[in-house]
Amino acid sequence: MEYSKNIDKKWQQKWKDEKLYKYNPNAKGKKLYTLEMFSYPSGAKLHLGHWFNYGPSDTFARLKRMQGYNVFHPMGFDAFGLPAENYAIKTGIHPEDSTMKNIETMKKQLEEMGGSYDWDYSVETCMPNYYKWTQWIFTKLFEAGLAYKKEAPVNWCKNCQTVLANEQVINGACERCGTAVERKKLAQWFFKITDYAEELLKDLEKLDWPESTKKVQTNWIGKSEGSEVTFKGENGDFEFNVFTTRVDTIGGVTYVVVAPESELVQRITTKEQKEAVDNYIKETAKLNEIDRLSTERPKTGVFTGAYAINPVNGDKIPVWIADYVLEDYGTGAVMAVPAHDTRDYAFAKKYNLPIKRVIEAKDGEKTELPYTEKGILVNSGIYNNLTSEEAKKKITDDLAAKSEGKRSINYRLKDWLVSRQRYWGAPIPIIYCDKCGMVSVPEKDLPVLLPYDVEFRPDGESPLKKCEEFMNCTCPKCGGKARREADTLDTFVCSSWYELRYPDAQNTEKAFDKETVNKMLPVDVYIGGKEHAAMHLIYARFMTKALRDLGYLDFDEPFKRLVHQGMILGPDGNKMSKSKGNTVSPETYIEQYGSDVFRMYLMFGFDYRQGGPWDEKGIESMVRYFSRIERLIETIGKYDEKESNGIIKENEKDLLRVKNQTIKAMGEDIDNFQFNTAIARSMELLNKINDYIRENNDINTKVVIETVKTYIKLLAPLAPHFAEEQWYRLGNTESIHKQQWPEINQKEMDGGTKNIPIQVNGKLKTCVTVSADATPEEILTAIKETPQVIEIFEKNDVKKEIYVPGRIYNLVV
RNA sequence: GCAGAUGUGGCGGAACUGGUAGACGCACAGGACUUAAAAUCCUGCGGUGGUUAAACACCGUGCCGGUUCGAUUCCGGCCAUCUGCACCA
Questions:
Q1: CA distance A135 to A71
Q2: Could you tell me the sign of the dihedral formed by the alpha carbons of A134, A140, A146, A151, in that order?
Q3: Is the CB of A171 under 7 A from strand B?
């Protein structure tokens, strides 16, 4: 193989000099915005996963460019975040320094990969020219009431004296020191994503996304339809609501349970029970994440001493508290029906609470308790004999008439907690003034710059709090002395709108121009890992909708089509990780074989959506393939096109037919991200060309040369450097990447033959070869004339004859 | 526990809306070229039986069953692996 990384370098330089990948928004061709999830510059270099994600996606972008689309294919860096900060804590290297250095390296490597990016449209989320607008968006959400502050529990590591992100909590313990993580309440910032729960759910329909990802989001949003029912205290001195999806079982309520954290508990607890209740609340607060995550843990709870009245049947029922009831879901209180709920059943058994059956199976079959299916009501007074569905409706209606209940919908989705007690993030642009309260930083004062010299080692407080010159400021409203918010924004906020910034990345006046984003978005194809199915992809959708409602854009969804690439695992079949020592570095392969061999091997050896364990065995096969192509080009060089007589014979038609079929198949395959089969098709074409040359002494040079040129064009998106080299070797003087994707010549593609399978009882017996353009009737005639078919009719009693016109013939005997 | 994905030759992986299972490649075997090797080219390659060789027959897409003229594909039930979410009332 003559091809090597030197050839890569040569063309990279030339493409750069010629600004080959310059994006022109006004160029002709339909716009196509294709985007890969940008990468996090945590490691110093691109790893195999980056290659597997970005190489094939670049191939897709290149195909689309050749097919005449005006392709917008930007790349940037998700540069804020915890790993850089952790790295800094470990090594003492400032996050800004390490991050900027990593970005430089990664950019260079992406060029070495042959990525067709225009770096004039790039974003780095840690740069003030980007995070200024992240902050600006925050202020707009704040002004619209979509960003708010409230107390919320955070993960707290006692040993490290720090707040932990969810990702830093491994099995309920701190990832660094292994100490059990506790919950601690702190004032936190939230985005009101719950306002959009219904729309986020409903609009999933519109999206061309993998069904499994839509399902993840559906579950994440967790819509649940049921009823809210009011329970009053036996003396009418208190009341509270419960949420239930099974109001039909309300007759079987034998106690109610309130979350220990609920403020109601303090009001209703009797003197006798006060000590027990207080102790229980204390114990619950101490509970760490490990215990909380355990569903195995036996249910515990305490009686408050108070009684409530069942609004449907007037039963007097005890009010308990138990930590299996969550304060922040539903109303923070549940009605317990031990006969028909497994948790309530276990709880009732443990504390000897009564169990009352109110639902029987529809078929009258005797079932054991707890019976959690729907059925027919019993022991429920006027509701007896109704089905569960009928009862739900009637009971809710009756309660509503008394103002003691209503239909209700609950979502599992919680508001998005966006504040972090961390250094390496965008400062939250809020100022606290004694006189004016919370004031957002006006646009003219943005960005609120992240100071460089900060002690970022964790000690339990936001690092920025210790930076006096950052903290002290004047109130934008009254001009008095004020303090800044010391928390920074979750990196998911930075990445929730970056796709909007790319098309207008240099804009210094606005986050983005409305007209520009309306024209360029939504992203036509978005490519990235499915680990982002819930978080990033739902946050970005929320942000688009919120900005739409604030009038900054006019579309509903950011990403029209979504493709998830698979993951390349270590050779041992496990996820690659430094600690397991099973990482594979792309560099050695690039050094040895050149970037296109590596890119092609990644595309050919794995299903793009699936990934799989790394295995370098097959990479030599790609070297062999490249060598065969080089030899072909060399052979072709000996022929002179002018010698051709121009008459196309039968054996040449076959070659042309395969050529056209390959154009079609490869275009479709790459469009579907099936790179492995696209490459297989290209190999078949090469085999065909070689067969033709070998089998014919007197070859038609014109046909061969044209076919080879087409073939190299087909390789251009897959192996950009290599194809360029061969293209020039064929005597061309303009980049192959400026060529059109070959057109399909229908005339050349027609003709030839095809096989029609003949089956007996669904089993293949023989085939009949017919002309590809034969009519179904002609084919049937040919089938009937086949000796084997005649024989079958003679020897068997044919009961049924099935002919799928032009496809298959089956006889039942 | 719930949800989702996956399961096809020795291996990576193909197979359109139910219609010739195993494309393409790797590995392997045999042959050509060579003093020899490498490279290259050609041929074979799911299993079992069968034959001098073929023809041919049977089995075969995780397992069991169903629908159908026909199932890797659709339905029901299992098993295994992986990935999310996890007391959601």
A1: 30
A2: positive
A3: no
Per-residue pLDDT tens digits for A745-804: 988 888 788 888 888 888 888 888 888 778 888 888 888 888 888 888 887 788 888 888
Cβ neighbours of residue A771 closer than 8 Å, sequence gap 6 or more: A751, A752, A753, A754
Q: Is the bond preceding A447 in cis, omega lying within 30 degrees of 0?
A: yes
Amino acid at A232: K
Burial (Cβ within 10 Å: 0-12, 13-18, ≥19) of residue A315: middle
Rounded to whole angstroms, the Cα distance separating A161 from A183 reads 12
Q: Is the CB of A615 under 7 A from strand B?
A: yes
Chain B nucleotides close to protein (CB under 7 A) are 3-6, 11-15, 19-21, 23-27, 39-42, 56-58, 69-71, 83-89
User: Beta A31-36 vs A70-72: how paired, if at all?
Assistant: parallel
Q: How much is the pTM?
A: 0.92
Q: Measuring from the CA of residue A249 to each C1' atom, give the nucleotide at the shortest distance.
A: B89
Beta pairing, strands A405-410 & A430-433: unpaired
Strand B, CB < 7 A, residues 773-812 of A: 800, 802, 804, 807-808, 810, 812
How confident is the model over A546-592, as pLDDT tens digits? 999 999 999 999 999 999 999 898 888 888 877 778 888 899 999 99
User: Where is average pLDDT lowest: A228-232, A266-270, A363-367, A555-559?
Assistant: A363-367
With a cut of 80, say whether residue A248 has pLDDT above it: yes
* A601's tokens: 């091997």
Cα-Cα-Cα-Cα torsion A458, A461, A462, A463, nearest 10 degrees, comes to -50
Average pLDDT over residues A524-548: 92
Task: Measure CA of the first residue to CA of the last residue in chain A; give whole Å.
Answer: 58
Strands in A523-527's sheet, in edge-to-edge order, are A70-72, A31-36, A523-527, A559-563
Beta partners for residue A484, in sequence order: A431
